[in-house]
Amino acid sequence: MQIEDLRGLIRDVPDFPSVGIIFRDLTTMIKNGEALHAMGDALADLYKDKGVTKVVGIESRGFIGGSILADRLGAGFVPARKPGKLPSVTVKASYAKEYGVDTIELHSDAIGPDDIVVLHDDLLATGGTMNACIQLVKSMNPKKIYVNFIVELTALNGREVLPDDVEVTALLKY
Known about the structure:
By secondary structure, the chain is an alpha/beta fold. Helix content is 27%, strand content 34%. A five-stranded parallel beta sheet has the order 4-3-7-8-9, with helices on both faces. The chain has a two-stranded antiparallel sheet with strand order 1-2. It has a two-stranded antiparallel ribbon with strand order 5-6. α4 links the parallel β3 and β4. α3 crosses α4 (62-73).
């Protein structure tokens, strides 16, 4: 199965979560074993020679691809969570959303200066969540940061809010 074949397995849900939005539902792709395996291969191919030591997956759909990527690379997995979900000392960043402010947290000891990190989420829309996560990871001073998405919604220009000093990739663009 090729990467472009994955596109045909992603369901478009009109008017979700609100009128005028076309939601790209990746659950129809990841329920297909062959597609999930192909997605994992494609993600790993992007980073297999980059020395990645940690993959940060953003709650909650970023946990799926992020865990697969970490496993394929032999790297550790770090969950980026909503407030109050991590049991130890955390660092946090808040960011603006369409209808208010949200916050993302990481354990304060999750990443060190020797780490090479891939931040992963399922979809890039406006970029606010990922930008906040990048700032958190940068505060931990890793050697290098990469950013990855399965899908990028290019019309929303989310890539523009992400820092220029991180390499951003997406498997599929809409």
